[in-house]
Amino acid sequence: MKDTTKNLSKELGLENAENTAHLYLYIKYIDHYLTKVGGPLGLVSKPPLQDIPPDVEEVIELYARKVLRDGLSAETSSYHGKVMPLGLAEDLVMVQEDVELRGMEHVVPYKIAHDIVLKNPQKIAVFDCPCRLLQENHCEPTDVCMAVGDPVASFVLDNEGFRARQASAEEAVEILRAERKRGHVHNAFFKDVVDGRFFAICNCCPCCCIGMKAWNKFGSPMLASSGYVAVVNEECTACGDCAEICPFDAVAVEEVAVVDRAKCMGCGVCEGACEYGAIALELDPTRSAPLDIKRLIAEYGGS
To answer: Number of folded domains in the chain?
Structure first.
């Protein structure tokens, strides 16, 4: 057994051996895992790239069925993402010290998997987005997903199937900024079998990302608002750039741009696309609080 696999088990504890097995299969065969989750909903268009033993595939299907069942409600959802504006995503990958923030349900509004725990956060593994690789004519580039901190980042780097590479925090910021220019959304992902905590940032597009497609097509509770909402000001010229790029179809153009607050997830893509500064994010107190890691560390002392 590889040391990185042993570290997964050690981190979760012997009492959570079943979760360790689930996590191991999820990470090692993530293309098969996501196919089992998204396939029944018509959210993937290509089969997995690698063949795996049939008995392993059967076990993965059992885990995927549980995710599908649990994902019907925010009360039971065990695998979900928190939308983040660019600045907050940058702050998250720039953390230099270990952080343990438990019970962050007011930030990550789910009953399960809402902890922000960073161990060795400088260890960042950049790897090919499995959602993109499961789609025909997928978006480019593909190496835009990031596992942040151990034990997950080291495990990803130790598995050849990911084509992963280690990146510095500065390189991670460059990826985030480039993806924002492409109109893609930063999502911090949480999962029950990763000790119920944050483990990765994905840069998601509505055409490839299984989570975003499930949200837009079915209203799946897999994604949570950033805590912000886009607001249009008097500088709007009705050019339509914001409506064209919005990944959640939350903006329409009449005499000026109009934001559907119910659909808006506060990702900030429209803000970045408006050359007139006519649309910007504002805090929405009716939604879960932003994943502002600097503020949370200051408020809770990192523990």
So the answer is: 2
